[in-house]
Amino acid sequence: MEWPWSAIAASSSPYSSRCFFTSPNSCLSLTRRTSLNSSIKPLRHIGFDSKHHNLITKRRVHGDSIVRRSTTSSKNAEETESSVECVGMGSDVECVYTGEGEDEEEENRSSGILSGGDGSLLEWAVLISPFFFWGTAMVAMKEVLPITGPFFVAAFRLIPAGLLLVAFAVYRGRPLPKGFDAWLSIALFALVDATCFQGFLAQGLQRTSAGLGSVIIDSQPLTVAVLASFLFGESIGIVRAGGLLLGVAGLLLLEVPSVTSDGNSFSLWGSGEWWMLLAAQSMAIGTVMVRWVSKYSDPIMATGWHMVIGGLPLLAISVINNDPVFNGSLQELSTNDIIALLYTSIFGSAVSYGVYFYSATKGSLTKLSSLTFLTPMFASIFGYLYLDETFSSLQLVGAAVTLVAIYLVNFPEGND
């Protein structure tokens, strides 16, 4: 998946138990496939705030990577309603749990596919659909890039989805960002997690296959693990350390074919794999930036605005670069090209993320996270079917090694 998403808590890292909000709502953070999710340790703490007469409950659940902090007024503790809302962007997804209903919530999460049930064919289709959309969106992007230009495609993927998310946040009554710190944090987050990530991805996709690019993008948890260790003191452990070393080896194997095939004419900036690696690093940095951003802004609003703000420089670069779409090729767009653009923006962004967030509230997050390995598979299959893309033998080995490394980096801490 080129946008692997993580639900991030805001206190010490994207995986802390501190709530994003100052209101007496509860914060539920969901983590997908980064090393930080496995660093969450079982913890339950109950306290009483005598000043505000609030009962405060914090809970960390090992394995499922759930962090929740609920603050409940003692006055209305007996009459509450529970709901979970998830939304996010880039590599970050925020789930907000309102009300207490702890036992009821756990009961609701104990059924269905993600909790060990067999599930119907429709349930499985819904569960897998986000990874299908993410993988096939890479193929759709690559197909339309030569006609519209890379930066236009990147901007088109961000701006419409961001505007929809902001509109949704307004409809839900979320507060707009206020103050210099709020807008500065969103702007910097947008620069890294939206502008750089999507720009690098589009550049790389011009020079490499959708399947190979998807594998490299999915390597970003390796960097997140290192950043978390240095910035937040997260323990890596023996298994994860081995995964990091294996991941480096896998990425090198993915790079070697492009170097050897070009021979003496090899240029680092002409390597699609290099651009994809830069995109993965941008996503990883964006992941750890969420903590800072969420200190000043509502996470849903911040997510939407960072998409819009991050897409504007890409649109400007597209105009300055005289991308084909602004140079007469707009009239040459076929119906299939327009469908590919819409598919990338709607299904590759809004729909896929929405379904993923919905599924994330219904069962085991560990099981859901494990399905993200389907994204490179779908990208590779449809890249082969529609674009005649193939992997070399060495690239196949590198892809397999990289995916194993990502699994090891996300290895449950209790088993380390």
From TrEMBL:
Pfam families with a match to the protein in the record: EamA
Keywords recorded for this protein, A-Z: Membrane, Transmembrane, Transmembrane helix
Regions crossing the membrane: 121-139, 151-171, 183-201, 222-254, 274-293, 300-320, 340-358, 370-387, 393-411
InterPro entries named among the record's database cross-references: AA-Vitamin_Transporters, EamA_dom, EmrE-like
Lipid bilayer topology: Multi-pass membrane protein
Residue stretches making up the EamA domain: 127-254, 271-410
Subcellular localization: Membrane
Annotated family: Belongs to the drug/metabolite transporter (DMT) superfamily. Plant drug/metabolite exporter (P-DME) (TC 2.A.7.4) family.
Name of the protein this chain belongs to: EamA domain-containing protein
Organism phylogeny: Eukaryota, Viridiplantae, Streptophyta, Embryophyta, Tracheophyta
